[in-house]
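Subject line: Sequence and fold of a protein, written as structure tokens
Area: Proteins and the way their chains fold up in space.
Start of record: The labelled sequence and token lines come straight after this line.
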Amino acid sequence: MLKRIEPWFWVLAAVLLSRFIGMTLFPFADTTEPRYAEIARLMAESGDWITPWFEPGVPFWGKPPLSFWAQAASLKIFGLSEFALRLPAWFATVGIVWLTWCLAKYARGALIARWSALVLSTMALTYISAGAVMTDTFLVFGTTLSLVSMWFVLSGRSGYWRWWFFVGLAIGLLAKGPLAVVLTVTPLVLWAAIFRQRLQPLKRLPWFLGSLLTLVIAVPWYVLAELKTPGFLNYFIIGEHFSRFLDPGWAGDLYGSAHNRPKGMIWVFWLWASFPWGIIGLVGFGWSVARGKTKELFTGIVEDTSTPYLLLCAIAPMLFFTLAGNTLWTYILPSLPFSAILIAGWVSKLDLGAWSRVRSGAVLLAPVLITLFVFIGISGVVPLKTEKQLIGRYESVHQTGDSPILYIGELPFSARFYSLGDAVEVTSSELKSVLENDEYTRVFAAIPNGAVDEVIGPKAADAQKVGENKRYQLFSIDLPPDNSQNGPVGPELNSKSG
């Protein structure tokens, strides 16, 4: 039975399974992964499946809950670990690769379908997001399901695909919000404007019942979320979907900071996200033009109606975000399944000489480089922005009567996650008050490297450095025994408030 499985499938399986290395060994590094991981951990701990919580008492209105549901469920099944939190994204990626293979096989044939799966799974952003705690992978599963389903409908192969189109919309709405509908509808509207004579199959879609299905799946959570934490809809719909993208310096972000990028930067992000295949595809296109094959290329586009559809689906995210200044490279992810099929159409023809070796090497390039980075990161050669080791060091030495670990300045998300919410954010003046009032037997303070002398001050003689990392030095400060048992007379430190 195993001998019947073709070699390309074993390569694909090896690529996808190799992501388990980073999923298991690489710690959460600030800021995205530990932020979302902590939200999922709080959901699993509290049993609140309606409102994602940024920290106890602070609702997270930035994203719908689908990814948090999946991650929290994984924690319930497998226990608390980086691997458990990352596993749902891996399954979502496998689903995206399978949908891409289905579309490519039907539209382009088995050979291009195989290469589409290999190209997509070995693009840099796909490979990274397959083992990362983030929301985008679930969004892309929804948009890809809808757009693949729509192509089957347009091609006259309706069946269950006409219903999956609406399910995909619901998945996108629960993963990222109305943006999913925009990214799905944009290429379809452009397609309809160009190919009006090919819209007859759209009558086969159950528009009323399908839309009702989408609403039944997605809307109840939005209603419950607003009822439980009033203000959610205003922040999420207006703030996250308009202010964030129209105002590059948007100051209303409650959970992070706006990214002021040059307009049009999203097209550069496509090169990064699709590495190395985007570059190979552009070089290949230029090579074909240089060899005088431009007419052949455009003739193929005219004769094969799947190419314009794939192209519109591929460029829709870039078109939408071109004028936005607040962008990230992860916004490219919805483009990659369709970009992969287009690139695979050319790559599959590279059977001779050096080009064939380039094709084979490109399959391994991103997975090998990213896995190498994982090993470099865990070896300590390149310090990571993670508090896992420092929290571990604190837990190994703290005793009854000691303070929680106090972070001077802004509390890193990774400290929140790895301390299970016990790490506390304090100012230097609050730390001074704690030290003066002797609430604890020992105080553990994580101090930014550049502020150690200023913060420790006159307590230097009583302070002992017990750990350090890229950003902080961890000090244990002994307090006088005659005052340390007087109870909490200093400022209250709620170890669960963050």
Q: What stands out?
A: The first helix runs from residue 7 to 25. Residues 199 and 385 are 51 Å apart (CA to CA).
